[in-house]
User: Fold this.
Amino acid sequence: MSWQTYLSNNRTRFIQELIDFISIPSISALPQHKDDVRRAAEWLKTRLDTAGMNHAMLINTAGHPAVYADWLHAPDKPTILLYGHYDVQPVDPLDQWVSPPFEPQIRDGKIYGRGASDDKGNIIATVQTLEAILRATGKFDVNVKCIFEGEEEIGSPTLGPAIAQHRDLLACDHIFSMDGLQWGEHAAGILVGLKGMAKLQINVFGPKTDQHSGLFGATIQNPTTALAHILASLRSPEGKVLVNGFYADVRPLTDQDRAHLAAVPFDSIAIQRTVGVTALSGEPGYSPLERMWARPTLDVNGIWGGFQGAGSKTIIPASAHAKITCRLVADQNPEHIADLIETHIHHHTPPGVRVEVEKSSGAHPFLMSPDHPSNILVQDVLSELYGSDPYYVRVGGSVPVYAVFERELGVQPATMGFTLEDEQLHAPNEFWRLESFDRCQMAYGILLHEF
Ligand SMILES: [Zn+2]
Assistant:
């Protein structure tokens, strides 16, 4: 029997397992669900075991456990590590769910429930594929390890230390994350880039209390005006960052990068309409998508100081403040960028005020070559499944696990998940198309066979 036949013969049981898995309310953020998170981990451990995987176990961390299993009977063959997360987001507002979040329902070929698409569906579909291959063919052509974490939805705080502690156990040649999106129902995408982040707060201090602007306005510096001057010096009106050295470590876009970005369908007018602005704006010399996905940003996220009440109040305020974040791209370093901005701020501080810069911990950007061997494998699988070449996509946000794998295991993770953007991730009525369930099983089946 082929593994494909095994999958279709067992589809009813596999769908029931999907329902059972989603029914466990493994909300990592809420302390009252701590035992449920562990129950989901135990469930998954048992399921890996019955799939025919070896050494299924929980890796205990300072927080929620991770689940591990392996199959290492292909000597001299590469080892792949499969990653996903079994924890889910909180469910409120509960009254907006058509069916209860932890009593999954199938309607119109879609399964509704918290975690259906992010990320329990992808995990269980893949584990079932492992079972199908092992039962139908008796072996994999590669060594397979699985690590499923229970803290992705709270930023993976303990995954780094857990991996560092189990470096040998988790050592591998390729990592594939099943926590990812496809471009659309009929178009595939390969994730090659994520942005990092630097965060700062500027505090500008003037007189020790607010002062009368008629008495002192002509002779002391105004902190809010000083802050406005500093902020205006940070970027051009369009959005080019004017901090010395800010772009020095940015890896320039290659012709291939630009061609990949240009191939992605992008509608400026639709975006303009969606967000409600009169025009798109940003660093000159780059297309909107190049800026969104491949160029760093500097944004003032909030600004406060002085009198905010009705009417007017004639004061020189004692202080003024602003919060700044930068979205970074490879190979910018968050600490270095924060230092450069701090230096710039001190250079551009007008006389007569004292400035303090608070820097908080940031995130490293992630960039993976489209030609990375793991991405070539993903590309082969997706092209076969969709009948067309995938787009190479990036995300302007940050996902900590990518940097964790790169740092702790020295392997860049490729992404192959089958969630679609409209599936209400983190929102009421989260669902997953059963078509994606089948597609995910086929994809991981082909991947494991093409090695
Ligand atoms: Zn996820």
Observations:
- The pocket of zinc ion is lined by residues 85, 118-119, 152, 179 (CB under 6 Å).
